[in-house]
Design brief:
Layout: H1 2-15, E1 25-30, E2 33-39, H2 51-63, E3 71-77, H3 81-90, E4 94-99, E5 124-126, H4 131-148
Parallel strand pairs: 3-4, 4-5
Antiparallel strand pairs: 1-2, 1-3
Helix pairs in contact: 2-3
């Protein structure tokens, strides 16, 4: 679990890179090394630029393949339906996430898309790694947004 925490700390560093974005960060690990990293870039006019999607796309480029066999995604927030589907399509081995998302999470909270038997590939998912630190970052972001909004 110590290795998972080290990679999650890197994902947290990514999450903190842009104060205008919902603070979600992700890294992709292959053979014990980070090969790709990303944070949300949705506010830059790219609605599908979730941290997970960007990190997996960069990992595919780094490995020169569309299949992320032997890779694990570490992300600070449980993937949404789009990102959970991308885990399947990339055929990534695993996903480790920090905070659960009881409203949109599709790796165990609302639904468990990566383990649905309807799909060819299965992705092993594990949540709750550094959950408090990941949740705290999200809570702080939304509290600051609410306090900055005129009532």
């Amino acid at each position: 679990m110590l290795q998972a925490e080290a990679f999650m700390k890197e994902a947290l560093r990514e999450a903190e890179k842009d104060g205008n974005e919902v603070p979600v960060g992700a890294v992709v690990v292959h053979e014990g090394k980070i090969i790709a990293r990303a944070h949300n870039e949705r506010e830059s006019g790219r609605p599908f630029a979730h941290a997970e999607m960007l990190a997996m796309e960069r990992a595919c480029r780094a490995l020169n393949t569309r299949r992320l066999h032997g890779c694990t995604l570490y992300v600070t927030l449980e993937p949404c339906p789009m990102c959970a589907g991308a885990l399947l399509m990339a055929e990534i081995d695993g996903c480790v996430f920090g905070a659960y998302d009881p409203r949109q999470g599709c790796c165990g909270s609302v639904y468990t898309l990566p383990q649905d038997p309807a799909f060819f590939h299965r992705v092993n998912c594990a949540g709750g790694v550094m959950e408090e630190a990941c949740s705290r970052l999200l809570r702080r972001f939304f509290q600051e947004k609410r306090s900055a909004s005129p009532v």
